[in-house]
Automatic annotation (TrEMBL):
Coiled coil: none annotated. The chain crosses the membrane at residues 18-41. The lineage of its organism: Eukaryota, Metazoa, Chordata, Craniata, Vertebrata. InterPro entries: AB_hydrolase_1, AB_hydrolase_fold, Epox_hydrolase-like. It comes from the Eukaryota. Belongs to the AB hydrolase superfamily. Epoxide hydrolase family. One of its GO terms (molecular function) is epoxide hydrolase activity. The keyword Transmembrane applies. This is Epoxide hydrolase 4. It holds the Pfam family Abhydrolase_1. The keyword Transcription regulation does not apply. Keywords: Hydrolase, Membrane, Transmembrane, Transmembrane helix. Residues 94-339 form the AB hydrolase-1 domain.
Length: 363
């Protein structure tokens, strides 16, 4: 009898797996068709500009601004990869480690590097495959296990055994996972515009609206075509992500300057610079859902209500996975790029959370 019951169960598991991958690749095909139509439309309207690509040999001055910190490199023994980071604040102070999202790099934390260096050793990392950090060629090198191990190894290489960990977007996903897998290494967790990974995977399957907003996850499963689409019209997609009304930074006082935009264009227009970042997404469906869920350290979740990529309902649901003090702050009129959009408010909220937690410990 037991043997008979096992057969239907195995069939059910296989059927669910087949349905899941059918969904992934079907939606991937839909996204590819939409991208192809946009390409044809661009060629029809401006054929001369569609394939124009400015060669950027020299970085803009803002990337070497000494007020942001010092450019440093560390080579990890186990992986052999060399990581680039910018560090501000004195050595020996508590470590604050900053993990950027996509399509960003260490520079997206410029406001926080200046702000927190008075009391912390602030390190803004270029994640594996980004910027000046090494980019392994195979997508298997970008599985979540590898990305989590990177943060553990970097922490140890910097001479620390714990840190305040802050992540935005994809860096927020990694920050959640590091906090789950290595809780002893994270004293306080701060995540910007990314829910707990279990919330994300469960919510996206039940809410078609979020599935549509996350369409780029599926589009990025294709080889080479996503990278090609980013290069069109001199990286128009990249510029649009940060500046358009739909997805960009909305407040006039905090729009990216021309030099800021040029910094992003310089980094991502280098040969092969997009493949590593997009490879982060090419293994995501084989790594989720998670086996372990709970976060046991004090956690702050900051969210821009006008996020074009993440529905705000996921922020509140995240609360159930944090088995410690949890604070959620949703900022109205703020975009997905929250720490660049409203840096003064974000910095103030982080200071408040850090000092509250210090006071709570003393009591």
């Amino acid at each position: 009898m037991a043997r008979r019951c096992c057969v239907p169960r195995r069939v059910m598991v296989a059927a669910r797996a087949l349905l899941f991958w059918a969904l992934v690749y079907s939606y991937c095909g839909v996204c590819a068709c939409i991208a192809g139509l946009r390409l044809l439309w661009s060629i029809g309207r401006r054929p001369g500009e569609t394939f124009r690509w400015v060669v950027r040999e020299n970085p803009p001055a803002c990337l070497n601004d000494p007020s942001l910190g010092t450019h440093c490199y560390v080579r990890i023994k186990d992986s052999g990869l060399r990581f680039h980071y910018v560090a501000a604040g004195e050595r020996g102070k508590p470590l604050m480690l900053l993990l950027h999202g996509f399509p960003e790099f260490w520079y997206s934390w410029r406001h926080q590097l200046r702000e927190f260096k008075s009391e912390y050793r602030v390190v803004a990392l270029d994640l594996r495959g980004y910027g000046e950090t090494d980019a392994p060629p195979h997508k298997e090198n970008y599985k979540l296990d590898c990305l989590i191990a990177d943060i553990k190894d970097i922490l140890e290489s910097l001479g620390y055994n714990k840190c305040v960990l802050i992540g935005h977007d994809w860096g927020g996903m990694i920050a959640w996972l590091v906090a789950i897998c290595y809780p002893e290494m994270v004293t306080k967790l701060i995540v910007v515009n990314f829910p707990h990974p279990s919330v994300f995977t469960e919510y996206i399957l039940r809410h078609p609206s979020q599935l549509i907003k996350s369409g780029y996850y599926f589009f990025f499963q294709m080889p080479w075509f996503p990278e090609f689409m980013f290069t069109l019209n001199d990286f128009k997609v990249l510029k649009s992500l940060f500046t358009s009304q739909a997805t960009g930074i909305g407040r006039k006082g905090c729009r990216l300057t021309a030099e800021d935009i040029e910094a992003y264009l310089y980094v991502f227009s280098q040969p092969g610079a997009l493949t590593g970042p997009i490879n982060h997404y090419r293994t995501i469906f084989s790594c989720l859902p998670l086996q372990h869920h709970e976060v046991i350290m004090p956690t702050l979740l900051l969210w821009g209500e006008r996020d074009a990529f993440m529905e705000v309902e996921m922020a509140e649901i995240t609360r159930i996975y944090v088995k410690n003090h949890f604070r959620l702050t949703i900022l109205s009129e703020a975009s997905h790029w929250l720490q660049q959009d409203q840096p003064d408010i974000v910095n103030k909220l982080i200071w408040t959370f850090l000092k509250e937690e210090t006071k709570r410990k003393r009591e």
